[in-house]
Write a structure and sequence with these properties.
The protein is of the alpha+beta class and 364 residues long. The chain has two domains: 245 residues, no CATH class; 77 residues, no CATH class. The chain has seven helices and twelve strands. α3 packs across α4. The radius of gyration is 21 Å and the shape is globular. InterPro entries: SUFU-like_domain, SUFU_N, Suppressor_of_fused. This is Suppressor of fused homolog. It comes from Biomphalaria glabrata (Bloodfluke planorb).
Length: 364
Amino acid sequence: MAHAGHTHVNDNTKNNHGHGSNFTSPKKFKIVSKDFGVQAIDRTLKRVYPEPLNPFSVSSPEKKIWNGGLLPLDYIKVFLNLGTPFYRIPHWHYVTYGLSDLHGDGRVHVFKGRDQPSGFGFELTFRLKKDSNENVPPSWPVTLLNDLSRYVFKTGIELCTFDYIPWFDALNKVGKERSRNPIITPCPSNSYINHMIVVNDPQLLSLDTASGTVNFLQIVGVLKEEFHYARSWKTSGIVDQLEIHPQSGNMLVTDISRKISVFDLNPRLVLEIFSKIESEGTFLNKVTCHVLWKEITDETDTVEGPENVSLNEQDEFRKMKCVHLDFDANAAELLPIMLCDLDFGLPFCSYVLCMDGNSLNRDD
């Protein structure tokens, strides 16, 4: 991901390791496959967008990742969607190509079987409200989706339905750090949409392709208070409210100019959520983060400073009587919330993975 310290969380129970990607050692390939993965995605999109004008635009790096390029995705296609009859919110629908196995020849992803995930098992989508005077889809979502995809490739940690992704900055703010793509023009932003959640795309159904299964996960931009309660309670509860918000609707369109939260529309919602938290707890129970730890034994009951404890492959799990943990700030804030859930009998996974400065939280 573009900035260290970003976090994501999920409501689903899922093992997120063992992705089968060849990304770390790209090789140059001669295009000889029939690209069954590309065709499968194209077919499902054609059912939703049969109009000749769609896709409205296609973003594709001149040099693909499997030929030594820097961007992780082969394509991002953008479609013009006029919205549903009840919520007529015209929007741009961005769809990635590359997190799943597009080619079936091992150039990026390892084939795991027809009944197994294709590549990482998903592609990302994003729905951005179309301005009335907008004739061309904005390019900043292309950078955003490449940033998220790069994180998945780099860490092997998959996104899941009802994950949340703290971003701590406007999603459409494209500066020097995030404008490595030459087609992106740096632009400032005063948007309050500075976090994301992940849902199933409401129009694109899961695919069973020759390379395996593919789900379409939609990125949805949210306000700070919506993110806070998605994290403190559960993401799916906030999604239910966003689906009836007039600016997002049941397609969960991201309106980058939105300032009215679901709590502004329903002031009693905060009290209802507090009541739910007291009766149900939170659904957050797994955190993947950057952490340092030091074992405390009977011989030494003081902690001079945290250090990484080396765990070899044969000793991956080791029982410790007492341990001092140092988390990054975002993960440390979540730990007390997770521990409180033990009182509700909810499953708790004390799972820690060291990573290079990036933290990723999961709300199962």
